[in-house]
UniProtKB/TrEMBL annotation:
Subcellular location field: Nucleus, Nuclear pore complex
GO cellular component: COPII vesicle coat; nuclear pore outer ring
Purpose: Required for protein transport from the endoplasmic reticulum to the Golgi apparatus.
Primary site of residence: nucleus
Domain of life: Eukaryota
Protein transport as UniProt keyword: yes
InterPro entries in the cross-refs: Sec13/Seh1_fam (IPR037363), WD40/YVTN_repeat-like_dom_sf (IPR015943), WD40_repeat_dom_sf (IPR036322), WD40_rpt (IPR001680)
GO biological process: COPII-coated vesicle budding; mRNA transport; protein import into nucleus
Name by which UniProt lists this protein: Uncharacterized protein
Length: 301
């Protein structure tokens, strides 16, 4: 049996997200009380380390950067802004960057750091329909870019593809493959979109149709060099789908994991990409795994 422990976060309002860092030793939480909190986690014990204040609205998500870049944490808020926090000496956190006020004209709903192989790049999805990129450059500045287009009504989530091309560990015909720059976005237009960065910059590769209402979340599975790309999506329509890319860019196959009959808020993959966690509108979190015959089944403890 897995032991589940909980603790009092100290937030004065609803907690919207909680994320462990790369090593599982730090926990960041964010809340409608406009603050981000950082905790040290050792076994069942937790120690409150810092309160990060700077947002002027509910903070929806937090995201840890890869430790290669130091102790870095990003947060996004209803206040249209993204703040990147960096830890200095003695657990002193400071604002390393605040996105300009005109970057987004509505709530920033989702943030996701790119695979570390691509550099320190944060993708940000907003209710204004656009997705922006904040990239740290060698001269210490942050460069801003945006996807061409996005989602007409609003963008709810963004998730990067692994930097390793699918199947690269299975067949290495031409030596070491280059890092892949792709991501998936979800929107209030009921669509998922796949984007790829090429010689002409960012381009929309495909729009995936399947949900009958807002797509609340999208999560690209870790590939670990496996031969296919896999994405999970969660909808306001209660449906969770897993999408698998056909070989040689032949489109995507959709498989229903489950119809939850209530809105589904979040989906996230295990580090191996074999188990899918689903958070639904009944405040339940369930785990799902694909059986040998390709049917998704709930993992029971």
């Amino acid at each position: 049996m897995t032991s589940v422990s909980s603790f009092e976060s100290g937030h004065a309002d609803m907690v919207h997200d909680a994320q462990l860092d790369y090593y599982g030793r730090r926990l960041a939480t964010c809340s409608s009380d406009r603050t981000v909190k950082v905790f040290d986690i050792v076994g069942d014990r937790h120690t409150h380390l810092a309160d990060l204040r700077g947002h002027e609205g509910p903070v929806w998500q937090v995201c840890w950067g890869h430790p290669k870049f130091g102790s870095i944490l990003a947060s996004c808020s209803f206040d249209h802004r993204v703040i990147i926090w960096k830890e200095g000496q003695g657990n002193q956190w400071q604002q390393a960057y605040i996105s300009p006020g005109n970057l987004h004209t509505a709530s920033v709903n989702s943030i996701c750091w790119a695979p570390y192989e691509l550099g320190l790049i944060l993708a940000c999805a907003s209710s204004d329909g656009s997705v922006s990129f904040l990239e740290y450059k060698a001269d210490g500045t942050w460069e801003i870019n945006k996807l061409p287009g996005g989602h007409n009504v609003g963008c709810t989530a963004v998730s990067w593809a692994p930097a390793t091309a699918p199947g690269s560990l299975v067949s290495m015909k031409h030596g070491q493959p280059g890092a892949v720059k792709r991501l998936a976005t979800s929107g209030c237009d009921n669509l998922l979109k796949i984007w790829r960065y090429g010689e002409m910059g960012w381009e929309e590769e495909e729009a995936l149709v399947g949900h009958s209402d807002w797509v609340r979340d999208v999560a690209w599975a870790p590939s670990l060099g496996l031969p296919k790309s896999t994405i999970a999506s969660a909808g306001q329509d209660g449906q969770v789908f897993v999408w698998s890319e056909r070989p040689a860019g032949g489109g995507w196959d959709r498989k229903l994991v489950h119809d939850f009959k209530v809105p589904v808020w979040r989906v996230s993959w295990s580090t191996t990409g074999s188990i899918l966690a689903v958070s639904d509108g009944n405040n339940a979190v369930t785990l799902w795994k694909e059986s040998m015959d390709g049917i998704w089944q709930q993992v029971t403890q």
